[in-house]
């Protein structure tokens, strides 16, 4: 491992030690400062390969991903509660500190989706939508404006908070639905969706993530599209990684690794046993796409 990578790993491990000593991961001055420091450390493009790190660092990475997931959930709950106190919560989404990131990520995912789908999907699912389902809200508001969104989360309180955010909106309240269930218990219903989005924090380690992917492969509509979030370089210390080899039963169509403040990589794959009647194009796996090819500036 090069000197630069060693310094990077050392700094990440030092931040991990500080985070692991926190009494709570709920939003606070110290929590916000440490996680901001961690994200800023991991964002710059890096050639680091986390699979080649020593066992101790691998264990720290696994623990850090879980701490990040817990902190992210608490942050979303905190702001969902605040937003839910407004008469029109969706008019105040900009108070969430990472809202602009969700605008860019949602536009990125929509643009990639349009490259592999010739029509607007009628029904999509978002697995792991959480208490602040910003991806679904942004996609439904700006990009897929006639599509029904079925949001799945295992936590009833998260769905309760999320549904409160859209309940006063005359449009989204009719197109966004929330299901309190473990996605591994959903079977034939999955065939109703033309596109399924899988949140980055569904499955906090490789085994959990692959279990969910295998389940989706078994029950998804043939030819349906799966949109996943992964990570690349030092960002792998923040989120679990999806490798194309993990997508058994799917044809990987495109992989995109952002280099800006959008943390997550985006992977799109097609369920095998292609059904031509769906109107989806059969395409060769694409090269990694770039922001320039997408004209991200068109986002609202």
UniProtKB/TrEMBL annotation:
What is this enzyme's EC? Answer: 2.5.1.43
InterPro entries associated with the record:
Nicotian_synth, SAM-dependent_MTases_sf
State if Repeat is listed as a keyword: no
Instruction: List the catalysed reactions.
Output: 3 S-adenosyl-L-methionine = nicotianamine + 3 S-methyl-5'-thioadenosine + 3 H(+)
Q: Does the keyword Signal apply?
A: no
Annotated keywords: S-adenosyl-L-methionine, Transferase
| BP-aspect Gene Ontology terms | nicotianamine biosynthetic process
Gene3D superfamilies tied to this protein: Vaccinia Virus protein VP39
Q: Which PROSITE patterns match?
A: NAS (PS51142)
Q: Which SUPFAM superfamilies match?
A: S-adenosyl-L-methionine-dependent methyltransferases
GO MF terms, alphabetically ordered:
nicotianamine synthase activity
As for family, the record states:
Belongs to the nicotianamine synthase (NAS)-like family.
Q: What does this protein do?
A: Synthesizes nicotianamine, a polyamine which serves as a sensor for the physiological iron status within the plant, and/or might be involved in the transport of iron.
Can you say what this protein is called? Answer: Nicotianamine synthase
Native source organism of the sequence: Nyssa sinensis
């Amino acid at each position: 491992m090069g000197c630069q990578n060693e310094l990077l790993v050392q700094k990440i491990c030092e931040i991990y030690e500080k985070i692991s000593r926190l009494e709570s991961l709920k939003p606070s001055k110290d929590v916000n400062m440490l996680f901001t420091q961690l994200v800023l450390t991991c964002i710059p493009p890096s050639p680091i390969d986390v699979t080649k790190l020593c066992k101790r660092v691998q264990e720290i990475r696994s623990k850090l991903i879980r701490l990040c997931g817990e902190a992210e959930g608490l942050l979303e709950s905190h702001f969902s509660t605040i937003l839910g106190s407004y008469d029109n919560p969706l008019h105040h989404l900009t108070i969430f500190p990472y809202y602009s990131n969700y605008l860019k990520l949602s536009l990125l995912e929509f643009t990639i989706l349009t490259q592999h789908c010739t029509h607007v999907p009628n029904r999509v699912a978002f697995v792991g939508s959480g208490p602040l389902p910003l991806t679904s809200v942004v996609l439904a508001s700006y990009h897929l404006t006639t599509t029904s969104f079925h949001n799945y989360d295992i936590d009833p309180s998260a769905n309760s908070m999320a549904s409160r955010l859209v309940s006063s909106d005359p449009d989204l309240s009719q197109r966004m639905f929330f299901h309190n269930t473990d996605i591994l218990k959903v079977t034939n219903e999955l065939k109703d969706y033309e596109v399924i989005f899988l949140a980055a924090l569904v499955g906090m380690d490789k085994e959990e993530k692959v279990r969910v992917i295998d389940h989706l492969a078994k029950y998804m509509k043939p030819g349906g599209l799966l949109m996943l979030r992964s990570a690349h370089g030092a960002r792998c210390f923040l989120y679990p990684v999806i490798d194309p080899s993990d997508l058994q039963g799917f044809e990987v169509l495109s992989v995109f690794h952002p280099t800006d403040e959008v943390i997550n990589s985006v992977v799109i794959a097609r369920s095998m046993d292609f059904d031509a009647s769906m109107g989806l194009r059969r395409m060769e796996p694409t090269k990694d796409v770039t922001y320039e090819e997408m004209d991200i500036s068109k986002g609202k």
